[in-house]
Amino acid sequence: MQWTSALQSHRRSASVGGKAKTTIKRRGARIVAIVLGLLVLGFALGVHPVVEFYDLTCPAGTVARSVSVAYWAVQCEPSEASSPATTVPISRYIGLFLTNVNVRMFDVDLLASNLHGPGLNVSR
Predict the structure, then answer these.
(1) Are residues 13 and 56 in the same domain?
(2) Cβ atoms 114, 71 nearer than 8 A
(3) N or C: which terminal CB in the chain sees fewer CB atoms within 10 Å?
């Protein structure tokens, strides 16, 4: 009797371990399928991330001055006093667009503190 119960116990534990291995394999295959599906979907929708970080560097002896009301309209002009080279941010922009369906997911202008959420018929 003891021999058969030990054998049955061993078979149960082996089958549980086998199921665990198959579950891990299935979970891995499911994760790979989801990632591949998202990549294909992203390619079909035309995911287009935009990151713009531009600076204007003025050489020594010049200073950056605004030439318009727009915050980004800056040019280097001669300085009356000697000054070291300066760098002024011109653009700090991050956005995500779906170009094939003409949808904006979001865009952020960090200099002007503008945040836009999802939008239709928007292109970049």
Answers:
(1) no
(2) no
(3) N
